[in-house]
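Input sequence (313 aa), recorded before submission:
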Amino acid sequence: MTSGYIALREHAAWLDLSARGKIRVSGEDRARLLHAMTTNQVELLKPGQGCYAFFLNAQGRILGDVNLLCFEDHFLLDTEPETRPKLFEHLDRYIIADDVTIEDETDRVATIAVEGPEAGAVLAQAGAPIPDSLYGSAGWGEWVITRISARAGATGFDQFFIFAGASERNALLAKLPIPAATPEDARIVRIENGRPRYGEEITERYLVQETGQLQAVSFSKGCYLGQEIVERVRNRAQIHRVLRRLEIDAVEPPAPGTKLTSGDVDAAEIASAVFSPGFGKVVALGYVRSQFAEPGTKLMAGAAQATVFDLHA
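Predicted structure, token format:
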């Protein structure tokens, strides 16, 4: 076990997430445009508030996810590195007669995450203001600290994203008396905690309800791109597969795409898998056919037994 892995699980560690995309959206029509293009409630957000949301295409497939943060004169879209260019181009395509300006601020803004069960206490001791609500933001001198839901952070534990000018990165890290965690540390803890990531477990292949991330969706807002498909799936109350956390009695992680079986029937497909030092076995995220998705269901991964769990059990 590495020190970063132990700190993420038991205390707190920092992660450099500066590669995550940061898209600034300004102009008088910014709220209206984002409300019409994302799955969550945007128009009611006030400065200092935010939400987690998906961008969908017209077929209801997921183009990307964002932490959508509201400030006095703009919104900040925090997204995965892989989806930054795609979402920028997607937004730009739909700006026609709108008073909206989009800017890619990724290279100008450093993102440092503080994560782990004691993340809030560590930041408070460092003098940081702790936002009261999820996706709430507060100024910390020249920096901005945002409280991210455990379901939308890098690891699935309590987390705070701190946004600072790229030149301020080292000054910020000097205030954090905690170890660094590597991307691999974070990936293991993320999968242990059932936190899917866009680009790995969530892709354009899947519908919203299949991912289990319904905190990204407002079912009471007005029309948005892809809503017809989301509502059709909800009204029929039927999906054929759902994302689940799996524990496999093995030490070698199966490759993405590996099928799990129940008898002679394909019952699930691995999206990601790691060996967990803390669990002493493989932990995975995979899409399980609905009839096999009940927590506690036993499946087979080759010769190894796998058990199905809820994502956040």
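Checked by second reader. Residues 84-94 form the longest helix (11 residues).
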